[in-house]
Design a protein that fits this description.
By secondary structure, the protein is of the alpha/beta class. It has helices at residues 7-20, 33-45, 48-60, 62-65, 94-105, 171-177, 181-184, 190-201, 211-224, 236-243, 252-258, 269-295, and strands at 72-76, 79-87, 109-115, 125-132, 142-151, 154-162, 205-208, 233-235. The chain has a five-stranded mixed sheet.
């Protein structure tokens, strides 16, 4: 166990660790420039006792406090505080409340700020769907990616590829998607298309139906390559619940059936991405209408 007598010594230790293990995944995170920058700022502006309390709480129950940290860290008058940003109507999840409470008890200022998001019609979106060998990003791989890039409601570009997961595709997955081992045998592996995926999604809001699933798999693929991947996200499940409340089901199949959206093939990436884009159109029409009302 390393003991640091001063905050400056702790900072130097963190910098040394980041330098020695830069780009290496350790099962929890991967050292990269932005993580180091944020940690150094936190160490420089947090009180030693508060930082110690946070580290102690996380050491005692990492599973509880490993998720749910606030959206932004603010340095104000040489003091550090955290802010959770919520749109009107959004709720604070249980894991967020637990982490906010822990930070507050540790002596760190925390707050929840409610904002009204504006909608910029010229904001690029990339609507993504993937097919995989299973449900967990850490132990399964992507077999197909479909993406459509949208600006001002119009599709301006498309991207689609099968991927070789370098492992057997389970029979139940083949039954669901129609993708089998033979189909992907000559397809590229993710490393061969990573630059294309990064470039296609650059500067865009990452949109998907159950976005954390698709985003989590793609982020995990970049992590395996020791590369950083970060995009703003929008979930069409969550936003459709706001735009069209009260529906019996918000699955992609039921929503496309309810709104008469044509599907060429369920559980194929490009078909599902195109359908999710139709939902994004409904969502943005609702958001723009809400924005217009709020501006009156």
């Amino acid at each position: 166990m390393i003991q640091c007598e001063t905050m400056d010594a702790l900072k130097q230790h963190i910098i040394a660790q980041a330098t020695a293990h830069y780009g290496e995944p350790n099962g929890i995170f991967r050292w990269h420039k932005q993580i180091l920058k944020r940690l150094v700022l936190f160490i420089e502006h947090a009180k030693a006792a508060s930082l110690g309390n946070v580290l102690k709480a996380m050491a005692q129950d990492y599973a509880m406090y490993s998720d749910g940290f606030p959206d932004i860290m603010v340095i104000d008058n040489q003091q550090v505080r955290f802010e959770e940003i919520k749109a009107t109507g959004d709720s604070v999840r249980k894991n967020q409340l637990l982490t906010l409470s822990m930070l507050s008890k540790a002596g760190i200022s925390v707050g929840i700020t409610t904002v009204s998001w504006g909608v910029n019609p010229m904001q690029p979106y990339v609507v993504v769907d993937i097919e995989t060998t299973g449900g967990r990003a850490t132990s399964h791989k992507i077999t197909e990616i479909g993406m459509v890039k949208v600006i001002n409601g119009q599709v301006v570009d498309e991207y689609q590829t099968l991927l070789n997961p370098k492992r057997r595709i389970p029979r139940n997955i083949t039954a669901l998607t129609g993708i089998d081992d033979v189909m992907v045998s000559n397809a590229p592996i993710f490393a061969e298309v990573a630059d294309e995926v990064a470039q296609f999604t650059k500067g865009c809001v990452f949109v998907a139906h159950n976005v954390n699933f698709d985003y989590g798999f793609i982020k995990q693929e970049f992590t395996r390559l020791e590369r950083h991947f970060s995009r703003a996200k929008l979930c069409t499940v969550r936003e459709m619940r706001k735009a069209r409340p009260g529906l019996a089901s918000y699955s992609l199949a039921n929503l496309t059936r309810h709104f008469g959206i044509e599907m060429s093939r369920h559980h194929r990436a490009m078909s599902d991405a195109i359908a999710a884009n139709e939902l994004l159109t409904i969502i943005n029409e609702h958001r723009l209408a809400e924005q217009s009302i709020s501006e009156l």
